[in-house]
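Exercise: predict the fold of this chain.
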Amino acid sequence: MVSVNDLPSVSIQNKDKITHAMFYFVFVFLWGNAFTKNSKTFFKVFVFAILYGIIIEIFQGVFTETRSADFFDVLANTFGALLGLLLLFIKKIT
């Protein structure tokens, strides 16, 4: 058998940004599906998700000593939310 210590380690650059994008993709897609399927609701969910992400980043920078606000987290959140919004519209038209 191979020891776990003998396995090569895998390093993914910016995996926290990928995690942010994936979370906001799921966030927008699931919440968009939870409500009526109209474009206005989709945009409201998208805007709410973006504002939520911005507020969380601000709180991290202001109210914690161990975390910091990161503009690139906001960009990753926005990218994931946009993908979720895109999937909602694709699902709506099919």
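Check your answer against the key: The mean pLDDT is 91.
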